[in-house]
Design brief:
single chain; three-stranded antiparallel β-sheet; four-stranded antiparallel β-sheet; about 220 residues; alpha+beta
Amino acid sequence: MMDRMFNDMPDRIRSLPRNAKGFPVPYFAEEVNGERDFRVVSAVKMAHAVRNDLCWVCGSRLGIYKAFVIGPMCGINRTISDPPSHKDCAVFSAKNCPFLSSPLAKRREAGLPDGGNEAAGFMLKRNPGAIGVWVTKSYRPFRPHRGNDGILFSIGEPVEVIWFASGRPATRDEVSLSVETGFPLLIDLAVKQGDGAVAELYKQKCAFEALLPRHEVAA
């Protein structure tokens, strides 16, 4: 096993097993062909985590605050397909996950089982470039209108949102660029639902912009 070093690793994550590349294996990762695959979410563990208020990353009990690792589009519509984590587990993931911390990284599709990376609802298969840790006291699971067996989560009003890009604090411009490039995809979906949905989406976008980094952050 590669002895990979990480900064600011929470003790809860430090206790997780490592894969052959030295990365901690998150609680949610399903076993595929004898190995835990980070790209494949275990439906059994999702149900167990939600039912027992467990962290999606480390698998231990959550406290009052719930943290969601989100792209800006999830921040606009306040909907995500993954349940919450501890704040420190979410921050570690945002800074160290190879996909989340690398704006140019692409989703690897090779070797996935049928439907293995299919999230509930309508998944935007893009790297958002900027990643937020949305900390809240509340969330609500619900079934999407789309006909599948998945579940989505409506995230509550944030008490804090921390933005990252390339494993470091994100600038306002980086998050704004992610919004500009991703928002048309949400508009396309809203148009299919009617004028009311489009108007509501613009309202949500306006509210979301207050949560962007207030100032530029030095790289």
